[in-house]
């Protein structure tokens, strides 16, 4: 593909961001006991020891409101990125059942009429 035009290359921003230690991002599909799968995104400290010898605090961000999802593969710097990068916290986002992820109408409507009970449990 031939590049026609750089609308705005954002060189200054790219240079600044390239100097930052950003968190490592990993995506996981976790099978739940009820046959459903939860989508999980982990933001890990840039220098995380993944051998299991080092323990890290973890904050879990769960929001499973109807037709919503937070586990997405896109670039961003947010509160979770800051905590993982600057305070060695593992920041997890979880799309549980009833979230609007890409798992079909049945999955998305599981919390209908029971949102407060089922959203918290799974």
UniProtKB/TrEMBL annotation:
InterPro entries with a match to the protein in the record: AB_hydrolase_fold, Serine_Prot_S9B/DPPIV
Superkingdom as given in the UniProt entry: Eukaryota
Protein's name in the database: Uncharacterized protein
The organism's taxonomic lineage, starting at the top: Eukaryota, Metazoa, Ecdysozoa, Arthropoda, Hexapoda
Gene Ontology CC entries for this record: plasma membrane
GO biological process terms on file: proteolysis
GO MF annotation terms: dipeptidyl-peptidase activity
């Amino acid at each position: 593909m031939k590049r026609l035009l750089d609308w705005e290359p954002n060189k200054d921003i790219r240079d600044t961001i390239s100097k930052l230690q950003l968190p490592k991002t990993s995506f996981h599909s976790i099978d739940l006991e009820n046959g459903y799968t939860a989508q999980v995104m982990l933001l890990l400290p840039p220098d995380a020891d993944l051998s299991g010898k080092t323990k890290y605090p973890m904050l879990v961000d769960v929001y499973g409101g109807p037709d919503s999802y937070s586990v997405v593969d896109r670039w961003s710097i947010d509160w979770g990125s800051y905590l993982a990068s600057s305070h060695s916290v593992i920041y997890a986002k979880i799309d549980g059942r009833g979230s609007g992820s890409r798992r079909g109408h049945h999955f998305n409507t599981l919390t209908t009429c029971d949102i407060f009970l089922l959203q918290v449990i799974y």
